[in-house]
TrEMBL record:
Keywords, in A-Z order: Signal
Signal sequence bounds: 1-29
Protein name: DUF3455 domain-containing protein
Pfam families according to UniProt: DUF3455 (PF11937)
Domain of life: Bacteria
Cited InterPro entries: DUF3455
């Protein structure tokens, strides 16, 4: 019989796995924005900043209403890069914080499938009013595009277990105008 690790130990293990991934993936410049699906397009906006994210989508083994354990999304954790230089971090909320302290908190508004079944969806996120600061204060929409990886589904063995799944993508911060 094995003891279940406390949540702080499980989280630390996930963060260590993510650190290894980030060291192996120092970041790159965002790819050119492709034609966007209508559902996540944001007409009447202009880009303020585009960053490349490299990190993990964290999943937790939880029981469904029938008691069957399965992987459920818990939170993202990623480093943000501009031209290969660390520009900030992405974390639960969802939130993005730049190295200069600028912060944005948003909620999902629409999604479109990723390029493959292994890729997390592209998203349009609406910034929560009053939850943007610094050089991102005018931002009203965040798009997650060009995703690669990050999905996990199916059964799991140990309720409470965490599993980081590497992903990358681009986040485009948009303000009214343009």
């Amino acid at each position: 019989m094995t003891a279940t690790a406390p949540p702080s130990a499980r989280r630390a293990a996930c963060l260590l796995a993510l650190a290894g991934f980030l060291i192996a993936s120092p970041g790159s410049a965002p790819r050119a924005q492709q034609s966007l699906p209508d559902g996540i397009a944001a007409p009447g906006t202009r880009p303020v900043l585009t960053v490349h994210a490299a990190g993990a989508q964290i999943y937790e083994c939880t029981a469904d209403a029938d008691g069957r354990p399965g992987w459920r999304f818990r939170e993202p954790i990623a480093a943000l890069f501009v031209n290969g230089v660390t520009a900030g971090r992405h974390f639960a909320g969802p939130s993005w914080q730049l190295t200069d302290g600028a912060l944005v908190l948003a909620r999902a508004a629409a999604s479109a499938p990723g390029a493959t079944t292994e890729d997390i969806p592209w998203l349009k996120l609406a910034v929560i009013p009053g939850q943007a600061s610094g050089r991102l204060a005018a931002v009203t929409v965040v798009q997650r595009i060009n995703t690669h990886g990050g999905t996990l589904a199916g059964p799991c063995d140990t309720v409470g277990a965490l599993r980081p799944v590497p992903y990358s993508g681009d986040y485009v911060f948009l303000a009214p105008g343009g």
